[in-house]
Amino acid sequence: VGEQWLPVLDVSLLLSKDEGALELRTACETIGFYFLENYEELLPQSVVKGMLEASAAAHALPTEHKEEWWLNGSDSGFMPV
């Protein structure tokens, strides 16, 4: 397996010009995810905490319940592994 890098994107660059948009697009198309830094002034820690709690609660649901969110050909939703 080859060595890969995790793109680190700065919010200030994303909010500025085309360079930030190009970096975001490249990260999404090549790696599929990225690390976003300096986001705190746009996304308070309390919001991040709430998102993590909601994600943990969704993952803890029984499989039968999560199957109601079946992908079914879309790019979002539940897919069992």
TrEMBL record:
UniProt source species: Polarella glacialis
Pfam family, one: DIOX_N
InterPro entries, sorted: DIOX_N, IPNS-like_sf
Residue ranges of every copy of the Non-haem dioxygenase N-terminal domain listed in the record: 6-69
Official protein name in the record: Non-haem dioxygenase N-terminal domain-containing protein
Top-rank lineage group of the source organism: Eukaryota
